[in-house]
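Hey, can you fold this one?
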Amino acid sequence: VLCIIAALAGSAATAQTVAVADGDTSIVQYLERHDTGGEVNIVQPAALTLRLSRTDATQAGQRSLTVYRVQLFSDNRSTTAKAEADRRAARVREIFTDVDVYVTFTSPFWRLRVGNFRSYEDANKILHELKTAFPDMASEMRIVRDRANVEMLDYIND
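Sure. Predicted structure:
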């Protein structure tokens, strides 16, 4: 009986395997083709389309820029780090409404970073303002270099 169930499960999984044609750069392109027997329209952000693409970001014309950001928090405690990063981000957004705030996860770390600055000096100015506004977080704050997709930036902080 177990052999029959395993064989059926294996054949069902195999039946759902789809081979993406060589001309398609992503599964989304394959699904949206009209020659597949149906019509599928997928609405998604441009960043997701790029991530799903088999084409390298540099080949797709995406440009990235080195920016400086102020890191306010970095933690790898899986049970509390995300909630703490979100809590601190909300505090920062209340006072610094004109600066981008990023909560990111790069395994195993949750990080809170602020700003898109062209120079270290510009980032240093806001670092001092942040330390004054949030003295309880001052010991964790530092300036970091980061990469930002030019197309995704709302603006560069000057």
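DSSP finds five helices and four strands in the chain. Let me know if you want another pass with a different chain boundary.
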